[in-house]
Automatic annotation (TrEMBL):
Binding site for CTP: S13, D146, I147, E148, K186, T187, K188, P189, T190, Q191, K222
Protein name: CTP synthase
UniProt entry keywords in alphabetical sequence: ATP-binding, Glutamine amidotransferase, Ligase, Magnesium, Metal-binding, Nucleotide-binding, Pyrimidine biosynthesis
PANTHER family reported in the protein's UniProt record: CTP SYNTHASE, CTP SYNTHASE-RELATED
Amino acids binding Mg(2+): D71, E139
Class of the enzyme per the UniProt entry, highest EC level: ligase
The encoding gene: pyrG
Domain Glutamine amidotransferase: from-to ranges: 301-533
Start and end residues of each CTP synthase N-terminal domain: 3-264
Organism in which the protein naturally occurs: Methylocapsa palsarum
Amino acid sequence: MARYIFITGGVVSSLGKGLAAASLGALLQARGYTVRLRKLDPYLNIDPGTMSPYQHGEVYVTDDGAETDLDLGHYERFTGRPAVREDNITTGRIYQDIIAKERRGDYLGATVQVIPHVTNAIKDFVLSGNDGVDFVLVEIGGTVGDIEGLPFFEAIRQLGNDLPRGHALFIHLTLLPYIPSAGELKTKPTQHSVKELRSIGIQPHILLCRTDREIPREERRKLGLFCNVRESAVIEARDVASIYDAPRAYHATGLDQEVLSAFGIEPAPKPDMGRWNAVMERIRNPEGEVTIAIVGKYTGLKDAYKSLIEALAHGGIANRVRVRIDWIESEIFEGCDPASHLEHVHGILVPGGFGQRGAEGKILAARFARERRVPYFGICFGMQMAVIEAMRSLGGVPEANSTEFGPTREPVVGLMTEWMRENELQIRAAEGDLGGTMRLGAYRALLSPGSKIAGIYGATEISERHRHRYEVNAAYRDRLLDKGLVFAGFSPDGLLPETIELEDHPWFIGVQFHPELKSRPFEPHPLFASFIAAALEQSRLV
Ligand code: GLN
């Protein structure tokens, strides 16, 4: 039977609960165990799909088409295990199910209440589908004390008793702030956070203490005493320069050892850290550096591009170079010559995006890359903008545009209302709901033999994750015949363009999908590895 590890947070948000969970998952894997990571999100949205990237950061899409929390991206990158829809749940989804059941009459006669109905639904979710898994790591979003988190904390408290003895472990992540005027790391916020947790019936077994310096023995002792944990279970979680060093750092402080001994697993199987040592050896010893411009719209919040930043770093790992990112708000190009911002970069990436704001700037960035022969990677929206640019400049369609921005005479990019998912027709109404209705998840695409992209993948059939509502209109394809822009990849039914490439260009590729979602540090995605290799070539020219 699976063992359960519940990871909660306190004091402040953004301490890296997701990374801590992902790192612990990786460490248990390194000791030969199978793991599954899941996230409970207390907000009321059904999923983060309709939230602004400014609110929530990136929406991470799974193979099975769920729009989920970005922590699932960490889980996947650290463990290599593809996340699935059922790895993430929100209060909204729990209530949606309960209310549907209530209307159906499933609870006939009963008053439907938070305890036990909501808590039971949460417990059923946590316990479901874990056959064959040694450790299930469950991260609870938000921090202890949040009103909306209470049913989740209550549910995991109950699970502590429902599960057989020795099958549940509670880990609490907190912050030890350093106060310069006192010259001390302060333990009081952690003490209060644990007190809050204990007041709702949860006694943590292990404390992860985020700190920018070593925790002195005395503070460690104090934390153990006041928070009622063993001194060896006060784990120092020091800042690390690269997130990929977190598993090794946690291992060095004894986290995985402490977890296994708390479960009574002794002696613990020896860990094999080879994969992480190899990744860190490359990150620590780059042989060069390239600069990539990300021309986007949410550049103020880097979390909006989490997987993209990581996939670029993985491309760097594959080529033994450090990847520096120049963040450029695309709107600034609407009124200035892009050259002044792009002349020095070695590659230009236009990522996924939504809406008209900044679109013309992205089109100008694509033009600059095409004309100046700078490596260009257009992802989803970035491919759509590159096609509009080519239609306007090369295809003789000066009014080329996307219907995403309003009615247009030349809908080179248009709304999709019907498409195939394997053998099943998907239909959407133009005025339908926005939540969960895009073309989402893994779809196969066929690449033309001999195309550049087929060469990069070393395959002519691929499967990648999608998240889009608009699509390049294949009817315009002929306008670009003999103009050098090739539609190299299509959906299996031949209707939806999936990739484009410029023939006479060092590296100009657009993809309708999101390859960044499947890249891993120890398995960099071929497109990112190839793009960074091209940028490295470019860096030798400029
Ligand atoms: N807004 C575009 C669409 O819906 C692109 C989406 C994206 O880049 N993920 O098709």
